[in-house]
Structure formats: structure tokens, C-alpha cells
Write a structure and sequence with these properties.
Helices cover 27% and strands 25% of the residues. The protein is an alpha/beta fold. It folds into three domains: 174 residues, FAD/NAD(P)-binding domain (3-Layer(bba) Sandwich), CATH 3.50.50.60; 145 residues, FAD/NAD(P)-binding domain, CATH 3.50.50; 76 residues, no CATH class. Helix 1 runs parallel beside helix 8. The radius of gyration is 22 Å and the shape is globular.
């Protein structure tokens, strides 16, 4: 098969891949860049929560991939199949080999629907919904809109998953919808989390427990969904007690929002680039591969122990671009990524708690003069209007966004709150 070569090859055309390509182009006008991405459509995934909550349409989250990639970047519309890092090459599903000087690997993660018995057979019907896929998210809103009473379950699988707050965000939107319709008291709402706490950062977890209590939501920790029977409206959870003993518990539901288990894509897991857990094995601060110095990884597929969010990608992109440019000049790599991630937690249909944090759960608010545990309208405006605009018009186009420069703009809105 024919072979092509590029100075910089990027695997994945999601938030990370397109941002890397366009950011690199802004920093260096001459470097030869190619991006491997099979999909014609690009989704603004942070919008899926509010699509499921009925405050956004799926169409608002979609753009054509072709409109986002700089025309001077070559788009290879294919799947990456295998990596040969010792030969500096990637083999495509078509059989063609693409070689590179530098490789950036950011294909996102995969949704493991089949790890929950019966889920694939019932998702999208029987009031079994999920915001985690563009194929299923609109059904979430259909379920919330049409149900009038009963038991509503919201599940969260073992970590890591993308946007760890999303499983409970939709729960609050549903509860607020029910309250606005005057039917909240007709529901039993339960949060069934495989993890031991409401949220991985204790600073925010306490505030979120209060939000849940305000809606009368029952929290069930160490409850991992393992099977679902849609027609029988039964969900089976594996529970773990304080001594580590496991048992199975069945719960009846009238509606269930399922967050599927997630992992690195299979082609990454079986590649030489994968670490012990299957993710692209990179240095936590430089994002350089721990074995292959001309390879970098970022985004959801990376091994870094940060929140897998678009906010994390925003901070990772300049680190990767600058380190590749530095490597080309023989410079020392900068350890500039501190694990920053952000999770705008929708706590109602007009309020959001803006959780920002870095490695080890350190709280890192961009607007320290505002208590980050308080839900505010300004962040709802951000979630529905401001952040999507920043994504499409700045981040994806390769601009570098320094959020603190927005402080005066944000303050104007909070003064009006």
C-alpha cells in the first residue's frame, strides 16, 4: 500500500484533536499537519446534558467536521488501526501506513454499553435513556417530558468516565422539571453511584449533597448497575458494604437514566502506547508519552488522573503544542499541565455550580471572588450560551483562552443576578 508522511500526525478529530491541529497552525504556519478522523460530524458533548434536560436541541451541538479543520491541515478520513511507534508509523483500517515525525494521540474514549447485561437491547425504549450518546440523548428528554409519577433512577458507573458530574446533572434537571410541573412529590428519585461519594472532590461533594436533599433525592453509594431488564422495568445493582462484601440488589423503576461504563478505545488498549489500565501512557505534567519521546497524548484517552472534560482539553492543548515545538528546537519540556478540569454542574434549569479543580482535588476557581459551591445564573448562561461560544469560536479554532480575562464580564452578570 502507498505510504504518506507528515511532520505532525494527530489521531482523533474531537475537541482535543481539532484544537491541537488549529492551535499548532496558529503557532507555526509551515509545519505539515494531518489529522486522522473518520467522522463527518463533530459534537459539542458538554451540551448533551441540557439536550436531555430539554433546554437545548441536539442540532445545536453538531457541526460538520470539514468546517472546523484548518484547510491547510490534511484530513485523513479513516480509522487508525494499529501503531508502530518504533517505526514512527500508524496503519489505517484501509491498510495504508502513515508515518510521522511527531504523533499526538487523542481519540477520546469508548462507551462500553455491553458491560451492563441487557442494556443494548433496551436503551432508547422502555424509559431507559442516556445522555452519553447523540443517538440516545433526545430520548432522555422524551422520558422526562412524558413521565408523570413513579421511581426515577440515575446511575453512575465506576470511574473514570467523561464528565464525572454528568450522571447527576441530568437528575437535577429532571427533578426541577418535575417541581416546575408540580409533580415532584409524585416521584421517588434515587442516585445509584458505583463510587463511595457524591463527587470526587469533597469540597463540592458536600454542596451537592445539599442540592440532592433539596429535591428529596435518595443517594445510594457503592451501587454499580450490572444488568437491566427494560420490559420488566428492573435494574440489578452490585452493592459493596463497608467490609467489602458484595451482593446483588434489584430495583424497580419507571424511568432510568444510565451512564454506561467507559474505557480507552480497544485499538488503544492493545497498542504499545497503552499503560496498565489501557489509556495512552503519558507524563502527568508534560503529556509526553512515557516511553516514546515524539508521542504525546491528551483528552479523554490520556492516562492523566484529571477530570475527562473539554475544560481539561482547553488547558492541555497549549502544553502539548508548546512542548512539541520545544522538542523540535531541543528545549527542555515544560511541566505546565496541573491537572485542571472543570465541570459546570447544572443544579436546576437556571442555576449551575462551576466546579474547577486540578490534581489531588485542589480547588482552582477562575473567579475566586465568587464562592464556587454556590449555584448561579451566570454559570447557567455560561453552560447554555457562553461556553459553547468559546468552544466553537475560540478553542476549536486554535485560540488560547485565558478565562480570568473574562472576570469583569462575568461580574456584570452576577451583579444583575
Amino acid at each position: 500500500m502507498s505510504q504518506q508522511h507528515h511532520s505532525l500526525l494527530i489521531v482523533g478529530g474531537g475537541a482535543a484533536g481539532v484544537s491541537i491541529a488549529n492551535n499548532m497552525r496558529r503557532q507555526n504556519a509551515s509545519i505539515d499537519i494531518a489529522i486522522i478522523e473518520p467522522s463527518e460530524k463533530h459534537y459539542y458533548q458538554p451540551g448533551f446534558t441540557i439536550v436531555g434536560g430539554g433546554a437545548y436541541t441536539l442540532q445545536q451541538t453538531i457541526r460538520n467536521e470539514a468546517d472546523l479543520i484548518n484547510p491547510t491541515v490534511k484530513w485523513i478520513k479513516d480509522y487508525a488501526e494499529t501503531f508502530q511507534p518504533d517505526e514512527n508509523s500508524v496503519t489505517l483500517r484501509s491498510g495504508e501506513t502513515v508515518s510521522y515525525d511527531y504523533l499526538v494521540v487523542c481519540p477520546g474514549l469508548q462507551l462500553d454499553w455491553d458491560k451492563i447485561a441487557g442494556l443494548k437491547e433496551t436503551i432508547g425504549k422502555n424509559n431507559v435513556c442516556s445522555n452519553y450518546s447523540p443517538d440516545t440523548v433526545e430520548y432522555t428528554w422524551e422520558c422526562i417530558r412524558n413521565i408523570e409519577s413513579g421511581t426515577a433512577l440515575f446511575t453512575q458507573p465506576p470511574m473514570p468516565i467523561k464528565c464525572a458530574g454528568a450522571p447527576q446533572k441530568i437528575m437535577y434537571l429532571a427533578a426541577d422539571r418535575f417541581r416546575k410541573k408540580g409533580i415532584l412529590d409524585k416521584f421517588t428519585i434515587e442516585f445509584c453511584n458505583a463510587g463511595p461519594a457524591m463527587f470526587g472532590v469533597p469540597f463540592y461533594a458536600k454542596a451537592l449533597m445539599k442540592v440532592a436533599a433539596g429535591y428529596g433525592i435518595k443517594t445510594n453509594f457503592n451501587h454499580n448497575l450490572v444488568a437491566i431488564d427494560g420490559p420488566a422495568k428492573t435494574a440489578t445493582f452490585e452493592t459493596t458494604d463497608s467490609e467489602g462484601n458484595k451482593q446483588q440488589v434489584a430495583k424497580q423503576f419507571d424511568m432510568i437514566h444510565v451512564t454506561p461504563p467507559q474505557s480507552a478505545p480497544d485499538f488503544i488498549k492493545k497498542s504499545p502506547l497503552a499503560g496498565p489500565a489501557g489509556w495512552v501512557d503519558v507524563n502527568n505534567k508534560t503529556l509526553q508519552h512515557n516511553k516514546y519521546s515524539n508521542i504525546f497524548g491528551l483528552g479523554d484517552a490520556g492516562s492523566t488522573p484529571n477530570a475527562k472534560t473539554a475544560g481539561a482539553v482547553r488547558k492541555q492543548v497549549p502544553v502539548v503544542v508548546d512542548n512539541i515545538l520545544g522538542l523540535m528546537k531541543g528545549k527542555q519540556l515544560a511541566e505546565d499541565y496541573d491537572g485542571y478540569g472543570t465541570c459546570p454542574l447544572t443544579t436546576s434549569l437556571n442555576r449551575v455550580m462551576l466546579a474547577e479543580f486540578s490534581y489531588d482535588g485542589k480547588v482552582t476557581p477562575s473567579f475566586p471572588f465568587l464562592d464556587p459551591r454556590k449555584s448561579r445564573f451566570i454559570w447557567w448562561w455560561g453552560k447554555t450560551t457562553g461556553f459553547p461560544w468559546l468552544y466553537w469560536h475560540l478553542m476549536i479554532k486554535g485560540y488560547r483562552i485565558d478565562i480570568p480575562h473574562l472576570e469583569s464580564y462575568a461580574k456584570r452578570f452576577t451583579d444583575e443576578e
